[in-house]
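Subject: for your reference before the review

Hello V.,

The reviewers asked for a structural picture of the protein, and I figured it would be easier to keep everything in one thread rather than splitting it across files. Below is the amino acid sequence we used in the manuscript, unchanged from the supplementary table.
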Amino acid sequence: MLNRVIYAGYMEHEPWGITRRKGHHEPLISLETYETIQTRRNSKGVAAKRPDISEDFPLRGAIVCACCDKPMTACFARSATGKRYPYFNCQTRDCSEYRKSIRAEKIDAGFEAILRSLKPSKQILDIATSMLKDAWDQRGDQAKQAKAEIKRQHNELDKQQDALVERMVETSNPKVMTALENKIAKLDDEKLLLTDKLSQNTKPKSTLSEIIELLQNYLANPWNVYENGSLEVRKTIQKTAFSAPLTYDRKNGYRTPQVSVIFDFFEKITSKCEMVRSRRLELPRVLPHSDLNAARLPIPPRPHVIR
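And here is what came back from the structure prediction:
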């Protein structure tokens, strides 16, 4: 099923000499998706999703040991009464913190404090909303430019194909004709891919108001979204809020996290705003004329010159 182009809405059968062409049936996937699948199938294998990342340990894979900078693992420890307790520990044998357990409650509480500290002010949220609107407009312009570029590439392929056909008519060498036919067929495939891209619906899945609402809910309180979200949402927040895994020290707790670009930008904007004095600058008080005379220093007498 994965290697049949019919599911992308096209037909081809090399044994019968039928080259790829648009079919009359409704496709299940786009031609671009089909080509991506073929590239993935012909490349090296991709690591499977880890089965040990569950709802019990959403931070597994996102925390590294402060001593060896290697990811920490998580597990349950069972007491004498049979009750299970979640723990994190380092499994690097050369590390000084090897297999020294840390209660998951401490790591979760520290992560909550970090997420709560990322909450920006209302002014920063307004700036982010304005930036999103500008980015939305730019994305629309980029989509138009991309469509124009696809049309230009399609016209360029038409010119190349016409040139190959002219060379094919002029030659009588069977090998050259076969090579030209293969090139023409390859150009046909490229043209079909460009045509499929043009036919795809480029309309966004969500409206601007929906995206703004989602952005404001996330930026206004990342911890609230994390706490009430699914495991997939939590992993997404970990990737979008931080640019690198969080480093945890068993004695001192979390080190300074490396936040993502957007939260780093908010932090810099906030620090710059705090540098400006909130109260107005007072001009120096102008003394009255009488006070000026009183405050004026005495003028020393001119020295007597003997001639």
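For the response letter, the relevant points are probably these. The chain has nine helices and eight strands. The chain has a mean pLDDT of 81.

Happy to draft the paragraph if you're swamped.

O.
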